[in-house]
Amino acid sequence: MDFRRRSPSAASISWVERTLGYGFRVVAWRRMTGGSMSAVHRLTVERSCCRLFVVLRQYEHAAAKYRSRVEREVSVLPCAISAGLPAPQLIAFSSRGEDVDGRPSVLMTRLHGHLDLVPEDPDTWLRQTAAMAARIHNTPIKAKTFLKWINPRRLTVPASALRPELWQTAFKVLQEQQSRRPSCFIHRDFQHFNLLWARGRLTGVVDWAVASSGPPEIDVGHCRLNLAVLHGSDWAEHFRLAYEAETGRITDPWWDLYALASYSDAWRRTIKIHVARRAPVDTVGMTTRVEELLDSTLRRL
User: Nearest to residue 115, comparing CAs of 242, 226, 29?
Assistant: First the structure.
């Protein structure tokens, strides 16, 4: 069985109880859906008449890439809270998984809100999303430089592509040019699957495991790709325009291409994990929606 679908181990529960202190007991747990690299559980904890909820994120084993994610999140969360960002508060961590079955783990508070992937008012939803991105980018937090996730010289056209010439043109631009933009604090995985809402108001941002320093367009481009995948290129364009209106600066389309180039046919499978039946998903038309955004981005060069 995929470890992300298993219940928290006895060692993990014991670690949480010891961390929280004398008298606390984990009385229930619920797997939080959507994660693709880690197992995330909401734990119900009680002591006497006191009940609270905490969130436990765990990675399967102590590989360097997972330890790095824990260390980044641990270093960023206190800074994000101090800066007034709606992030979880860090409670405890184990970067190597000592006493937690060897699984790098982060224990944090649970934020108020839920995912809202099918908003009743998309315009307001997109404006709030753009405003939150701008707010993050204006936060003076120092973080490690972002890790590049594509090699422009090793890109391949998706097998499902209907317009392969668009991909080839984008790959050529990425290979021949290099955008140089000022760096700022970025979430690095900023998109609607990491935003929490309550009564139409954006209340929280989760999953800070790859927060970094880099061009703000990295967040903008990544969010636009995810919007196109689930909803369409028009949503992605509305988000860009809202972000530009919020910040007063034009985004560099080079980084859109950089984000779009990370798309592959594997997204047809992983999108279902992220959505987890919380929204309708048209996987057949997914590549077409991304190509529409790719076309409009190339026209902005």
Answer: 226
